[in-house]
Amino acid sequence: MTATAEVLKPKDYKSDIRPVWCAGCGDYGVLNAVQNAFAALKLSLYDTVCVSGIGCSSRLPYFLKTYGFHSLHGRSLPVAVGIKLARPELEVVVFGGDGDLFSIGGGHFPHVARKNSDVTCIMMDNHIYGLTKGQVSPTSTPGMVATTTPFGAPDTGSVNPLAYALTYGASFVAQSFSGNPKALSEIVQQAIMHEGFSYVNVISPCLTFNKIDTFDFYKDAFVDLPADHDKSNLVAALDKAFNPPAGKVYNGVFYETQRPTLVENLKKVNQKAKADKNRDLNEFVEEFAI
């Protein structure tokens, strides 16, 4: 993590571009939490890159003064990994929604997680497609009535983002609520400080198109993970991801572990390659001969 010696306040990370989200959108709370997290960590404006795909939440990099990369739909994670590989000293943060990251971008997530690339992924989960006017998403409630499913979505299940991230090997997995920017900011700070792939699932209600998963429901539904939860225990984390108390949603860090990052492992490969370059050609051919 690259910090700045300059004392920056949350407002100093805010760009001159005015957010264009609907009034009351949960993403405003995420933006507020991120600005506070960046200020608390004293992140340098010039050593931080915010990457996004396409969608309402993917507009977020525009509203920050850091470097930003508004990539193709669903392609934010590979772009972020490429930036981190080219410039490992940079802090790279990905922003996206449940459609962008788990539908068209769903094929990238498992491999970024298992390779443990040192990027932070913050997903704003509103259980709907907002930018394209209200279609069901991978995290929508089965049977949801939406613009393209007037008689209910035919899906028999929905993606559980926390279980997905845990199963595919993310080394930091957490969840919070855009309606509580203070708690969310604290979790974002932990995610950024973690060395490895960090995933934060943020419940961020869409007031315009999702009339089921609303602020009124979630403001009373969120509860902190039990004080005795062992975040180093993957099985315990999966249990909490699948089995929250009835009618409740957990806030907190589900899982955290330390293991070599993608950049660290590639450095080891490079060192082996350099040590091997002076080997006798005939010896090398014999090693691989059938």
The multimeric state of the shown protein is single chain
Counted up, domains total 1
Roughly how much helix do the residues carry, as a percent range?
25-40%
Bin the strand percentage. Answer: 15-25%
The whole-number mean of residue pLDDT values reads 92
CATH class assignment? Alpha Beta
CATH topology: Rossmann fold
List segments where confidence is low: pLDDT < 50 over at least 5 consecutive residues: none
Query: What general form does the structure show?
Result: globular
Number of helices: 10
- Describe the strand arrangement of the main beta sheet, using strand numbers: 2-1-3-4-6-5-8-7
- Count of β-strands: 8
Structural write-up:
The protein is an alpha/beta fold and 290 residues long. It has one domain: Rossmann fold, CATH 3.40.50.970. Helices cover 34% and strands 16% of the residues. It has an eight-stranded mixed beta sheet with strand order 2-1-3-4-6-5-8-7, with helices on both faces. Helix 1 packs across helix 6 and helix 5 runs antiparallel to helix 8.
Keywords:
290 residues; Rossmann fold; 10 helices
Summary of the model, kept short:
The protein has ten helices and eight strands.
Layout: helices, strands, pairs:
Elements: H1 27-41, E1 48-52, E2 67-70, H2 76-86, E3 91-97, H3 98-104, H4 109-115, E4 120-125, H5 161-167, E5 172-177, H6 181-193, E6 198-203, H7 215-221, E7 222-224, H8 234-242, E8 249-256, H9 262-276, H10 281-288
Parallel strand pairs: 1-2, 1-3, 3-4, 4-6, 5-6, 7-8
Antiparallel strand pairs: 5-8
